[in-house]
Amino acid sequence: MSKDQQRLPRPREGAASSRRRTGRQPPTHGHGSPRDPAEGGGAGLRPPRHPDLVVEVAHPKIIQDSGAQILRHANLLVGSPSALADQATEQQLLEASHRWDHAVFVARGALWGTEDIARLDAAGGLQSLRVTMATHPDGFRLEGPLAAAQRPASRTVLYEGPVRGLCPFAPRNSNTMAAAALAAPSLGFDRVIGVLVADLSLTDMHVVEVELSGPPGPGGRSFAVHTRRENPAEPGAVTGSATVTAFWRSLLGCCQLPSSAGIHLC
Fold first, then answer.
1. What is the torsion angle, in degrees rounded to the nearest 10, for the CA atoms of residue 56, residue 61, residue 66 and residue 68?
2. Number of C-beta neighbours around residue 173 at 10 A
3. Residue 256 has what pLDDT?
4. What is the DSSP letter of 237?
5. Please, are residues 177 and 210 in contact by the beta-carbon 8 Å criterion?
6. What is the C-alpha to C-alpha distance for residues 38 and 263, in angstroms, rounded to an integer?
7. Pairing status of strand 103-106 against strand 262-265
8. 115 — phi, psi (to 5°)?
9. CA dihedral 148, 167, 203, 209 (to 10 degrees)
């Protein structure tokens, strides 16, 4: 061995030699390139990703308190449309949606004929819309004066009037009516009529009736539709069995719709 070879330094113990021992490679990002420290996230950690969609199925208060903030980061699927009966909440959601270019999707829930209502309304042919929700009183989750109402002997109308006035006191039992108000913006929450009925005979179902009419035709008769939806439900349940499937379809549907700003029924 020559003197020059004897003076060569030994390999320094460091990253390269430790990689040979452990087989570990430096953290990479993308197509195998080393992570740029400026990207943050710490050594070997990927930066957090924002979700594409946040789904609310708890209570309208979640939307009222946090909906606008959620829209800063993701699209929003509202499972409690009664939250939008509050005008300030609806306005905040619209402003945040347009500011951050995220969509507000609203599940139609138990509302039957949503597209037909919306199309008739858009054509100027909707004059009145009335939604009646009837079930056993154990299926209600009422607040305020409605919670203090006396239990009915057989069948009792607990509320009849604009949907906007009902939603704060029946936030979990007025979502179908709220969806109808959103489907018919020419009438909205103030002119769509909601009727809440406690019926002791409906121990295992929720009944939703939708009645709508158009303006009188040349002969004086008006276009009219009346649908009745009977949804099986466990005793005391707030949500009927078929509504779960309807909500799942709404979730799949909003994932296929363009993510455009504004409020969209799905």
1. 90
2. 25
3. 83
4. -
5. no
6. 37
7. parallel
8. -65, -40
9. 130
Q: What is the pTM of this model?
A: 0.79
Number of other residues whose CB lies within 10 A of the CB of residue 215: 11
**Eight-class DSSP state of 40:** -
**Residue 93: which residues within 8 A CB-CB, separation 6 or more?**
63, 67, 68, 71, 76, 84, 104, 263
CA atoms within 13 A on the CB side of 42: 2
Q: What is the mean pLDDT of each run of 10 residues along the chain (266 residues)?
A: 47 43 44 43 61 93 97 96 98 97 94 95 96 95 87 86 97 96 98 97 96 91 95 88 88 85 94
Residue 110 and residue 229 in contact, taking contact as beta carbons nearer than 8 Å: yes
- Alpha carbon 87 to its chain centroid, in Å, reads 17
E strand residue ranges, the chain: 28-29, 33-34, 53-56, 75-78, 103-106, 128-135, 155-162, 193-199, 205-216, 222-232, 262-265
CB atoms within 10 A of CB 261: 18
pLDDT at 170: 96
Residue at 221: amino acid letter:
R
3-class secondary structure, 143: coil
CB contact set of 205 (below 8 Å; sequence gap of 6+): 135, 230, 231, 232, 233, 240
Cβ-in-10-Å burial (0-12, 13-18, 19+) of 123 comes to exposed
Q: What angle do CA 154, 158, 164 make, to 5 degrees?
A: 155
